[in-house]
Amino acid sequence: MTFAKYAKVFDVGLQNTFVYRWNFILRSVFGIVPLIGTIFLWRAMFAGDATKQLGGYDYSALITYFMLAVFVENLVTPTEDEWQIAADIRDGRLSALLLKPLNYLAYRFTLYASYRLLYVLIVLPGIALVFYCLRGHFTFPGDPMTWLLFAVSTAMAALLQFLLAYSLAMLAFWLLEISTIIFIVFSLEYFLSGQIFPLDMLPSWLQGLVKWGPFSYELYFPVQIFMERVKGFALYEGLAIQATWLLLAWLMALSLWRAGVRRYQAFGG
Fold first, then answer.
1. 174: containing domain
2. C-alpha dihedral over 47, 52, 56, 60, to 10 degrees?
3. Does 268 reside within a domain?
4. Total number of domains in the chain
5. How much of the chain, in percent, has pLDDT values that exceed 70?
6. Calpha distance 56→209 (Å, rounded)
7. Long-range Cβ contact pairs of 237-245 (< 8 A, separation 24 or more)
8. What is the pLDDT of residues 230-269, one digit of tens each?
9. Which of 48, 56, 207, 215 could form a disulfide with 192 if both were Cys (CB 3.0 to 4.6 A apart)?
């Protein structure tokens, strides 16, 4: 019964996504445009010199990094989930959900998963085309264990991103407007997750600090695993840190929910 219940939520999420189908499709298709711009930027920086290296990356390695970064980002990054959850709380729609036999965290994660699935299916042909056009720069790992660890790390990255977005949204129980906080966290996340450049280009002292934070494990670390740039003890240490942050994010999400529901007062819905 529990499976059937959340399967129905998943189906509802798919249907809701296609209410504004053209908005969704265009957002998905043009999601790869930043990758094209990034490729032209780094091509200009290397000035056609294939032997040049920046921060331990040659041109092909950087192209591989950003192709994988876009792929992982499309797989795992929540899309407006924190805004939707905050709106549920602020507008009183949460009241109806509290009366249903649903776990709200599981409910929101099911909706998140349904959106990500559709988004990836729409954007995947475009990403595959870019991969094909740049196949001369791309090398797949030969070790099956690399594929397995990449999948595990990517799954943890998805859960970590969702739980952090969910926890941010829980602040709506106490604050009427959380957009400023979301913007601050998003700015840090954008810089420290490796979306702008590989984090091992940072100064070594700053890399040491970033390593212990959660943001590098949202995107940068899974990509490094796939590129086989992190191995041995550093690989398993990174997975352990990522799993620890995932556990902490889950506990924070549960704690904020319980504290928030106790003071919840609905004025909308």
1. 2-262
2. 60
3. no
4. 1
5. 91
6. 20
7. 238/153, 238/211, 239/149, 239/152, 239/153, 239/156, 241/211, 241/212, 241/217, 242/153, 242/156, 242/157, 242/160, 242/217, 243/156, 245/160, 245/214, 245/217
8. 999 999 999 999 999 999 999 999 999 999 998 887 654 4
9. 215
